[in-house]
Amino acid sequence: MGESWRAEKLPPETLQKNFVEITPPLTDEEALVESNRCLFCYDAPCMRACPTHINIPSFIKKIATGNLKGSARVIMESNFLGATCARVCPVDELCEGSCVYEPFNKPIMIGRLQRYATDAMIAKNWHLFEPGSPTGKRVACVGSGPAGLSCAAELAKLGHKVTIFEKREMAGGLDTYGIVVFREPREISLKEVQMVQDLGVEFRTKVEVGKEISTQELLTTYDAVFLGLGLGRVPPLGIPGENLAGVYDALDFVESTRTQPIHKIEVGRRVAILGAGNTAVDAATISKRLGAEHVLILYRRGEDEMSAYRFEYEFAKNEGIEYRLFTAPVRILGNHRVEAIECVRTQLSGLDATGRRAAVSIPGSEFTIPIDMVIRATGQHKYLQLLDNLNVKHEKGRILINTETGQTSNPKIFAGGDCVLGPGAMAATVIAVEHGKIGAKGIHHLLTPQKQAK
Amino acid sequence: MVTVDLSVKMSGLKSPNPFWVASGPPSNTLYQAHKAFEAGWGGFVWKTIGAPILNVTNRYGGIDYGGKRVVGFNNIELISDRPLSVNLKEIAEAKKRWPDRLVVVSLMVESKRQVWHEIVKRTQDTGCDAIELNYGCPHGMSERGMGSAVGQVPEYCTMITEWVMEAAKIPVLVKLTPNVTNIVTSARAVKQAKADGISMINTINSIMGVDLDSLQTQPQVHGKGGHGGYAGPAVKPVGLNLVSQVAKDSEVGLPISAIGGVETWRDAAEYMLLGASTVQVCTGIMKFGFRIVEDMIDGMKHWMEEKGFQSPHDFIGKSVSRISDYKDFNIMYKTIAEIDYDKCIKCNLCYVACEDGTHQAIELVRENGQSVPKILEEECVGCRMCELICPVHCITMEEVDRNLGVKSWAQIVAENPGIDENWETMEAWRKKHNFFIH
Q1: Residues 6+ apart with CB under 8 A from B6
Q2: What ipTM did this prediction achieve?
Q3: pTM score, two decimals?
């Protein structure tokens, strides 16, 4: 077979075009028209639908009056990752989906207006917030993804001294490493990291808790700890052939597009993605845009069970991704490299542990698809060992918290983001940001009880 | 279905329809006259000719609202800056080419009898149908003792109109300025001089704004600014009121050609219901071109068919009699807001307008995960703010029969001496009639 597994490299200009941000920014004129279209609802449903409760009518009105700085402030005071959320929020499911215009007119482009205001903030380098007067308390945030950044920013605004521990080289978590480039360029995430830094938060990158710093030291040095661990890599499926060359972890694959020059990334001619969530869509659409000839998404359940957002599913289909539903992988075949994948047809039966209908194989329905590359997008690892070392209660790696305060079973430790989400819960940057805010409030309450209003 | 004929008669003139191009930038040249008449306009009031002038640049200003451009407009343009002889020649040609349309010529010269006599004679020699006297321009010309400098002094209005009437062999309309305390006085003054009709309103004194970067007023002419004439949709309510006042005055009794924010057949119909025989359009054409007359003709025809009006004369002035004094309004008339929940989108603008801005008669209730506005009927004073602000027109003011008959303030005062001076008497009367106030 030689090197024939590789898809032919696309011309540089095509690649360049394929990986620039899909949604263009609003022009000044578009923003003016769109912001004026907003009705300025009272007790607005969009604001209730936003997990971070951004005062959407207020920030849009400010765009209409030409007060862009005020607009950005309104966004950022509810959501310190407002620039990222403007790009990656599932707005159809949240703010825009609840817009009062929805039944009879186009909903207001809330996401793009938010981007308009936050783009101005970034371009003009506005410093909208100041650190609070020092309380003398020290807080550690473990993980620098959206939950950790949001928590750190809120705590810094309240005057606490915050240190973020990040095992990777760059901060930002999935916002930096895990968003497809054509949804958000990496610079936006790094700018948000910068803004947290500007509030006096210390970043200790390439420091993994449990390795470079012990859990013991963490708990004795800091007055409180916030765990915004996120989740780990994609766990193995436990089927034969997973170790063959050409089998990838979807997160590694997405990450490569954010850390390497696009033209250096290789992709197979025929690519099979295992799983049908949002990450699967990312891996599939990246493969296609890199030049893969045929991209398949294999999923053992049906359309109704898919965890991908509707707009992601539609996007994937528009990009020419083929969905093979009710199809489960049995084993990956090949000598050194992937050559084919053996699958089995499935059907749905009763509910499984996650509350979804379980897929069962139909005996004798096995078939083989020739394939050059397999990408696993079937969920993420949980950090069981670390949680046990920290002595916080968890359920199979999901940290149990008081949802009002973010507090874990260890009163000094708070948590939020993907690491506290139960099965089937919506995982999104905006939700992690809100968790960070809740955790910051909980920690502030713990550290300065006498100052609380109540 | 009735057969509709849009032609109108006014001041001895017959116009194929009530829509005229107003004196202004759209009526500056023969070229524009041709284009206007081709588009279907019934009349064309030639941009004011008269004394020599020079214009400045940056002469227009606009006001935007909610992203919508030029809801109000102003200008500091003066009368025609083209030589009189050129204008007169073109006017003659326009009339010759369009015998079935009206060519009216707007005039403004210095306040000398001889000068007025001369311009009137030279103008009517062109064969034009009528003359319109510009007593209205609020900027520039007024500083030279013309335009609104005449219109603001009733005695001058009478005097100059008399001079014109001495020389005029064709109908004379006088265009009034709204920049006066009582426009009826101006109208009576020109009636006294035996003018044939009134055009109103000219533009309103205005400054359009201040640029927040340069701090210059808008529009600005090399750093300087000043008041200009305000026009466009925003002035229509002012025009409607002033036209109705003149139409209602029994002493005036002159036909009116209405001007002020007309852009559609609806605007025209409203002016005509309040007493105008024809309407004139300037800003609307400046914004969208002569083509807007097509829907004015079309829309008015359809509306007239629906209403059973054969001729504009069937409805001209039909609403004038409804203009009354507050003291004669029925105080016992009561309406309450009602929300059509099939149409309500739960934007809650009615709620905040009522709660903060008016009478606290709407509450917000959480229902099925939504905040829903509910009218508190006992508290509703029927003010109508909610109906006005609702973006989907789902609120109506429904009449409530309180079985209190009809009673005006005048009647109440007559029947209850002292009620207009004494709060106790008022409270007793209210109690007796169960007259709720919030």
Answers
A1: B16, B17, B18, B42, B297, B300, B301, B304, B311, B312
A2: 0.86
A3: 0.90
